[in-house]
Amino acid sequence: MALFLDIFGYLSVVLRGLTLLAQSFTIGGLAFQLLLLRPLQAELSAEAIIVGKRGQRLLRLSAFGWFAIVLAALAVNMAALTGTLELSLGEAAGADFARSGFAVAACALGIAWLARTGHWGRARAIMLVALVGLALAMQLNLTHAASRLDVRWPLLAADFLHMLGAGIWIGGLPYFLLALNGCRSEDDQRRIGRRYSLMSMASVAAIVLGGTIMAMAYLGSFAAIYGTAYGVMTSAKVAMLLMLLALGAGNFLAVERLRRRDPAAPLLRMKRFVEVELGIGLTVLLTAGSLTSLPPGIDLSQDRLSWSEIVERATPQWPRLSSPSVDQLTISQLQAKIDAADAQRVTAPQAYVPGEGVILPRSAADIAWSEYNHHWAGIFVVLIGVLALIERFSWGRWARHWPLLFLVMAAFLFFRADEMAWPLGPIGFWASWRDPEVAQHRLFVVLIILFGLFEWRVRLRGQQAGRAALVFPLTVAAGGALLLTHSHAIANIKDQLLIEMSHTPLALCGITAGWARWLELRMDGRISRAAAWVWPVAFVLVGLILLDYREA
Amino acid sequence: MSCITRSLHLPVIAALLLACPGTASAHAIIVTSQPASGATIDKDAVAIRLRFNSRIDHARSRLKLRAPDGAEQALIPAADAPADEIDAEARALRPGAWHLQWQVLSVDGHITRGDIPFNVR
């Protein structure tokens, strides 16, 4: 049970993100069938029937995934309840959240069962819509709107709109991609593109309307946007929304050209943009899952970050390139600064997720250790970005071995990231896995080795690299998504908030780099050439942010 | 960036931020507590009142006192507390450092726990 509670917070965030993902794909699949394929059935070619069947299979899979993930989340929460309070399983299952969760799971299973065949009569379609509506209504009981004391109905309605909009737009993207790839006739693509474009615009309106209402209630002030973790994570979501809207605008223009029967309509571009939209959309949903570990910014009036504190932390300083030894405990000057900052801190009542435990006091040596790690990692990443830029010039072919730097960086991180774990610290290799932070670091090390090796091979093989070339952008984008998918300290803890301030732009640069490289590989012409410059620059930015990273 | 440019940018950024807070579902945190964290009490009895930022499932929430000698004692929450509060009565408190340990389940299904240290003189 102790091990389970150690990872409970992180597990909850991941399961919440996966729930939103499966829920959105289910809603998107149903909307694609009922609002797009079926109304256009008479006008589309026979290829659309095959697309419809594939879409129905994906819908069934998504609904079944939704069912399984909700059950897993329920099991995790009920285990935490019975493990921390002397409650029976029956008592835990009687909680409001558990009853709502079971209802959502039942609806999802019902959708999977009804969607098992492609022959939908009117009654079946009505039942499917009713089940999705009921599941969303029950899902509302698992949102903060349900537990607010103030007026709840506007928040519940806003949340409903937000989830529905995200489901139809982002959840509809894989089905749209299936249709674009499956229907080769230009007429089909024009009709499908036009209809999906309208659905997306309506969905964006619902997302923005719902979001605005919730923002007014949950953020409440401009200061909460940069002063609380909830505000920072929301900003990350807005940045990704802007990326999605830019890609969506590109697709809208492509659809308009298709509608005007322009023979030069950029169809390939539209497909590739949808692929990137899908990837960023998944990240947005996972980030939304991460937001669930945070109380709304409006509720945290103490220990918020001030603008001057953020500016002070972000002001560039010379990187720390020498490390304290493991057993070194204090660096007097820095320690005095930390003590002075800690003494000024207003102490809000602390709150934790079970297993999160008490946050240990910081020592100057710990901070120096961590800053040294980040700064050297920054040097590696800047070098990688610069070498990737040099490789683009005719005289810079020698620089193509830059992926090997990832292996050096992975080795550096493995030794330095968790000083208390093997090989530097007293905690054994296997025992250290129970610390979620160590597990996350190890996952990152494996990711870095993977994309280093794949990308080196790609650089050596050039055009013959094939699909192996896609591993690098996917792992970079996944790294960015992982940085945004983590549990947070519940109360405002300034030190952690300031660290999050630098991790969030890191994640966004990672996502930009990954998907820009994807576009470079998957497209040709102007956009591919531009993307080829974007991702190394994003890498250099990541390196510079790391070089400016400070914890005090 | 000049002040004028910044003043133009801020409303735009604010409007964008307002547009996208995401699905909110969050843990309960304490808004006010009695006794306050770190408070010193002169009496041997205290009315405990913890107010949260959300509705609480009272049947699945717990309060516990840890005495200066480490002994733990469960408190019985008042049945008539408001939806966002847990109230209880602690008696026979001897002088020393006490800890009020709480764990609550918010009605949206999130478990939160915490510890409020206080002293009895």
What does this structure look like?
The complex is a heterodimer of chains A (552) and B (121). Chain A has 552 residues and is mostly helical. Helix content of chain A is 72%, strand content 0%. Chain A contains 20 helices and no strands. Chain A starts with a helix and ends in a 5-residue tail after the last helix. The model of chain A has no long low-confidence stretch (mean pLDDT 85). By secondary structure, chain B is mainly β. Chain B has one domain (26-120): Immunoglobulin-like (Sandwich), CATH 2.60.40. Chain B has 1 helix and 8 strands; from the N terminus they run αββββββββ. Chain B has one helix at 3-18, and strands at 30-34, 40-41, 46-52, 62-66, 72-75, 85-90, 96-105, 111-120. The longest helix of chain B has 16 residues, at 3-18. The termini of chain B are far apart. Residues 1-25 of chain B have low confidence and may be disordered. Classes of the chains: A mainly alpha (552), B mainly beta (121). At the A-B interface, helix 2, helix 4, helix 6, helix 7 and helix 9 of A face helix 1, strand 1 and strand 8 of B. Chain B: InterPro entries: CopC/D, CopC_dom, Cu-Rt/internalin_Ig-like, Ig_E-set. Chain B: It comes from Bradyrhizobium denitrificans.
